[in-house]
Protein 1
Amino acid sequence: MVLTLSPYLPASNLFFPVGFVIAERVLYLPSIGFCLMVALGLHLLNARIKRKNCDIETINNDTEQTDISKCTSSYWTWFGMSGWPLLVCILLHTVFTVKTLQRNVDWWDMDRLGQAGLTTNPTNAKIHFTIANNLAQKGQRVCEKHYRKAILLRPQYTAAWINLGLVLVNMDRPKEAEDAYATALRLNPASGNAHTNYGHFCRLQLRWQEAVHHYAQALKKRQGDPVLLFNQGLCLKQIGNYTAAEETWRLCLQYHPTHGDAWHELAKLCGKTKKGGDQVKKGQWTTGQRAKLAEGAFRSALRYKPNKEGVWLDLTQLLTFNGKLQDAELVIRQAISSVSSQSATAYYWLGNVMQKRGLHTEAEKHFKHALRLDPKHSQARRAVSQLPGGNA
């Protein structure tokens, strides 16, 4: 009885409300108590019937106590049980075995589990939310209906508003999506999830300043989140706050040193801005200490993103601009052999390096190969035309 009642009270909502995650786990203990009570009840019933129906063998005429274990019975027995208590026990085992098998079918996958829950409790917002999440992962638009049903049943369901907003973004309905995110934040202004998704939405809408604000709010709940820091850096770069963008990406790399995209963006920023945040002229790269920082960041990016062609090409351009032509040739040849064998731009830059080294015949060969890969490549066409005796 103690095992049945004591664990049940915290999950009963009599004293304070608890969520289903806690409740369903606490309810396992009352189940144990209930099973023990049933077993004890069957044992007592079996003992009483056994005492009544079996022939009691008396040790002597003055015996004051009956030894049940020495009884014999006309009923067949199983684990010490006989008669109708045994039949009840078998019936219980059979019924609950069948129920377990049926429930196992419900748990076969999320679709069946959701439908089973919906059949049992169609007004449960959590069930509609779970079904909607499963449908959304499969890309099925009907998930919107279940999110809206969950919200109808529980208007304060912040998570449902957030996920509805995400679905609406993917369905190219930005106005409704923004309304959903705004509602989620009105219900829970400190929601890290809501600020994260609203920040992504603003970034996609090119509303950089708003995106920075929402990412900053989300980071209060998710300190050091590399995705948030990386995207915040992108937005800061777009609004021209290069110093803050660099600091943000460096912070991102402190928490996640293997973030190849962050290394790449940091390298490009160092390579295109002077100390203090001023940009270099278009088509140029930094020199000196900033160039060394950029080169180091590019090489770190290659360590974690070796198949990203843009990193190889950017590093080649930086090295070429700083006069490190042999290093630039080595890098671009490695790029061509590993990830850029069919890239016209890669062959153009190899030709560019060869031209700067005075190897015009070699340069012309690579420029023309770039044009064979992409006849519309304007840089390669212009380079061929500027070669001695060149003909584009």
Note: The first strand starts at residue 77 and ends at 78.
Protein 2
Amino acid sequence: MQFTLTGESQERERVLSHFSRRYVECNPEVTLTDDAVHGLVCAVMLLNTDLHGQNIGKKMTMSEFVENLSGMNEGWDYQRDMLKQLYHNVKAAPLQWAT
């Protein structure tokens, strides 16, 4: 799957915010708030850039990814197993940005 987030940062922020709200609406079993989903989406996008960007030196480790998100779920920690799975998934299959 490929997607493009173009335009000004305010436009991209609106898209990500809408996505986060819609994700929570469509997945009632998820116990995360809109803000928690938004933070996680942004973290995954940054992780993808860190792991697969061409101009990145030292790549982020799984432990660093988990630690970076400590307390970012409305003051609580995200489930560690979920973060580990996200890390491994992004590392194995990078997000493809459309050009």
Note: The mean pLDDT is 88.
Protein 3
Amino acid sequence: LADLNRDSNDKYWRKMKVQVEEVKGQELYTNFHSMSITRDKICQVVKKWHTLIEAFVQAKTLDGYLLRCFAIGFTQRTKRQVKATCYAKGSQKKLIRKKMMEIMVAEINKSTLKELTKKFIQESIGA
């Protein structure tokens, strides 16, 4: 993403992929293909003594594209917590994963692919 926006060096860890749909002379018409995170950023956000919760969902956008989205969540220490660890129980992880999936499906179903791409870039979903 930093290559696409020359002034934003803080978003270097996002890898945007586009797919060429059509070629007309010297022009290429592309479409959004995927967005992923670099390995160094994933290693930076994963912490010891916390629970990692992953979820994925498949849903259709308003304009008919089928998207498969993946999300990562972590447990967080409370303000006055003394214990070093903040692990989640299996039932808690299941509820958190369910809520993550509900949010992703709702956002995908109410937006077009172009709107979703803008939301991902602006970090209005997640963050």
Note: The longest strand covers residues 14-24.
Protein 4
Amino acid sequence: IAAIPRDGRSYTPTLFKETTAKLRKLYVPDDVIHHLMEISELAEKAKTSQEDDELLADRAPSKYVDPILGTLMTEPVLLPSSNVIVDRSVIAKHLLSDPIDPFNRQPLQMSDVIPQHDLTNEIMKWRTEEL
């Protein structure tokens, strides 16, 4: 669901409303339309959360910000060969196309990264206090 509002090319808040109206004209069952409306609400909540995170990243301590995308980390992991901490989702996307550590060009797999649970908890606490 969180990926829906991130797609700025094709997502707009009115997209689901327009689609729902078209589906009603096609006599699509109400339960399908209701499910689509639920997805729309979840996407809007995700968009609001993402906007909050963008604002938070601007004032977050640098150790809470992913060095690749500049976003507030939610699941920090340590890249063992470069000793750099990045967000799990960011490095996972990177490794899909290029199985190397982006900071030192050494081979890297997702199984190599080390979760940083204490930092995760610290970020979550800070985020809660800031909102």
Note: The longest helix spans residues 30-59.
